[in-house]
Amino acid sequence: MDQTGERAADVLVADDRIAEVGTGLRGDRELDAGGCIVAPGLVDLHVHLREPGMEDAETIETGARAAALGGFTAIVAMPNTTPAQDDPAVVSAVLAAGSRSSCDVQAAGTITKARAGGELAPMGELHALGVRIFTDDGSCVDSAGVMRAALEYAASLPGAVVAQHAEDDSLAGGGHMHEGDWSSRLGIPGRPAAAEDTIVARDCILAATTGSRLHFLHLSTAGAIELVRAAKARGLPITAEAAPHHFTLTDAACASFDPIFKVNPPLRTDADVAAVKAGLADGTIDAIATDHAPHRTEAKERPFEEAPPGMLGLETALALTLGELVEPGVMSLGDALARLSWGPAAIAGLADHGGPVHAGSIANLCVFDPGVRWVVEADALASRASNTPYAGQTLRGRTRHTVLRGTPVVVDGSPVR
Length: 417
Ligand code: DOR
Prior knowledge:
- This protein is an alpha/beta fold.
- About 30% of the residues lie in helices and about 20% in strands.
- The protein is built from 13 helices and 17 strands.
- The protein starts with 9 loop residues before the first strand and ends with a strand.
């Protein structure tokens, strides 16, 4: 599969590039792709690798291995590490570890120092190291003044994108799940859809006045998606992503009181899930991003209101996309791969990723079997953590091989790095 369609062919790789696509090609080493789709490597704009600071939940090495097993050849490492990626030394260390890992790692930088929402981080210095996405993810930039200043600063940095975790803390703070019927019934304080919708509305206005590139992380509400649709129709330079858990799960899952289903923004209603799917289908949402958020088992086994938010995503994203979006006909396989590969690659400026599978392209490839069924086993995942909400479920479609710059990093479903 490439950006222009699907055909049966061999793909010959020489060094780090695709040398030829055709039939009857032979090489020194051959990977069987019978029954598989050969796609551009997947790209994840939103991954928490936890290093530095929370290495007992994940490291750059283990997170990148999980990414490669999921078919990803490039990931963006979120900056809510400890210390935060608000400093050139921290970002340099993340990039150095990433360069030794199983996929390309682009470091995101924070918008504000220590993600505290006040003083801007040294965005120019971080940009000089290769940072393109700036975000305080995990926290919203609540101050409109700070957000406008960040957008103005980013406009002077080529390729820079300001990415907002859109949840107004004055509305969502103290909440642990979506505010609605289920939160009332369960007696768990809620995080209302309005917390997301109001920030998206405000930031669309700020993007319009500054002309800067703005990206919305993990959109989860019908209202926010409609606002982005309208902003895009006006030609604003806005992009958005959605996470697989927001098109596969609803707040009803929280009735189990199992914190495995606790995430920010929270799992929402059936109507919101339908809106996320529609937004992905019509391109309002440009990218599927996992928001892979590993947490130690002991932390996730605490009572719902004390447990940290977040769930794993790297190793299940492709299968969930195929099962929930492609198989039922919500979108074509080509459009799904656009959201998983070349869409996010374009947002992050990752020119070596996202295909097309043509002679001359860098050989970053995801070879997946769309038909194979497999059972998610939390402890068998490559991630150091095991907080997947899909444990025990049978999914369809899995990566067989992942090739990073011409080098196989996953072969027959096993990591080789
Ligand atoms: O659920 C979440 N977990 N949402 C975020 O924005 C941050 C993430 C984390 O870092 O655990």
